[in-house]
Amino acid sequence: MSEACPHSFDEQLLSGHLxxxxxxxxxxxxxxxxxxCEVCREQFGQLELMRKASMSTPFxxxxxxxxxxxxxxxxSRLFRGTGWILVLAWFTVSLGxxxxxxxxxxxHPLIKLLVVSGLAGMGLLFVSVLLDRLRSAKTDxxxxxxx
Amino acid sequence: MAVRQVPPPTxxxxxxxxxxxxxxxxxEALAVRFRRPAYLLALQLLGNPDDALxxxxxxxxxxxxxxxxxxxxxxxxxxxxxxxxxxxxxxxxRQKVRRTESLDAVVESPRLTDYRRNPERExxxxxLQRKIWQGLSRLDRARxxxxxxxxxxxxxxAEIAEILDIPVGTVMSRLHRARRGLRSVLExxxxxxxx
Lengths: 147, 195
Fold this sequence. Notes:
The structure holds 2 protein chains of 2 kinds. By secondary structure, chain A is an all-alpha fold. Chain A has 6 helices and no strands. The N and C termini of chain B lie far apart (62 Å).
C-alpha cells in the first residue's frame, strides 16, 4: 500500500501538475515539493506511468461496413428476448413431456438404457463443442474478418 | 448529375452550420469525423465492443436529431461525448453489460516495429495497459468515467466538467481520487507495478 505524504501536501495538485492544469504559483509549489518529498515523487511517477499507458492503448475500431449496420433498437431487443424465452419454454416443456412419456410407457429396460445413454452421450458432446466455441468466440479478434 | 461547386468545408462550425441546414454531405462528414471518438468512449465506459457500437450509433443518431438546437459556435466533441456518456449510463442501468476483461479482445494487433524499438519496455507497457483495463472494471462508475475522459480521451478539465456537469474546480479532486483508486487496485489486486 502506498504511503501518504509525510508533509501533508495537498496531493490532488499532483494530478493537476500531471495534466498541466495548475496556475503558475501552484506549479512552482508542486515542483519545489517534489524535489524534497520522495513519497510524492514516487506517487507522481506512478500516476504519470498510468496515464502514459492509458493514452497509448491502441483500441481497435469498427470498419465502415459495421458502421453502416443499423443499431439494434429497443423494440428489436424486446422481440428477440421474448422470442428466446418462448423458444426455451417450448423446448423445456417438450423435453419434459417426452421424458415423462418415455419413462412411464412400458418397454424393455435394456432398450430404454440404450436410448438414454445414447442421448446423454450426444448431449455431452454437443455441450463440450458449444463451450469451446463460446470460449474462442470471446477472444477471437479476427471473428469479423470477411472470408 | 449536378456537380458540387462549393469546396468541401474544413472549419467545424461551418460544417455544423451546413448540417443544420440539411446538407447531407456535411452530416456525413460530421458522422465520419466523430464516430471514432464516440465509439472509443462507449467502449472504454462499457468495456464491450458490441454494446459500444450500439451506443455510438445511437448517440450519433441523437446528435443529428438534436442538431437544430445545438449552438454551432461550440465544439461538437464535448456535446457528442455527453450524449455518449448518458446513453452508456442508460444501457448500464437497463441491462447488465458484460465488460470484456481481456484487453486483447478490444485492441489492435501489436505492430512488430514497436517490439524492435525496445522489446522489454514495450512488453512491460502492454502488460500495464492490460492491468489498467482490468483495474477499470473494478472501479465504480463515477471513477471510471472521469479516468476514461482524462487519461484515455485526453480531454481538458473544462471539457470534462461540461460532460459530467460538475464545476471545473471539482474535476481535479475527483480525478485524483479516481487515479488513487486505480493505483490501489493495481497494487493490491493486480500484482502492482513499478516506475
